[in-house]
Amino acid sequence: MKKFGFLVLLFVFGLVFPGYSHAAADTHIILDGKEIVQPTEAKAENIDSKVMVPIRVVSESLGYSVDWKQQSQTVTISKDNTAIQMIVGKKKATVNGSNVDLDAPPLVKKGTTLVPLRFIGEQMGLKVGWNNTTKTVTLVTQNSGSGNGTTTPPSSGNQDGDTEQEGLVLVNGISFSDNRFIIATSGLTKPNVFTMTGPDRIVIDLPNTAFADSFSQGHALDNNQNGQLVVDGDPDVSRVRYSLFDNSSSTIRFVIDLSSAKGYSVQNDSGVVLIDLNNQSGTPAPPVGGNGKKVVVIDAGHGNQDPGAIGVTGKREKDFNLAMALKVEALLKKESKIDTILTRSDDTFLALKERVKVAQDINADIFISIHANSGPVAATGVETFYSRSVSKELANVMHKYLVKSSGLKDRGVKMASLHVTRETTMPAVLLEGGFLSNKSDEAVLFTETFQNNVAKGIVAGIKEYLGIQ
Question: 91, 184, 243, 310: least buried by Cβ within 10 Å?
Answer without folding.
Answer: 91
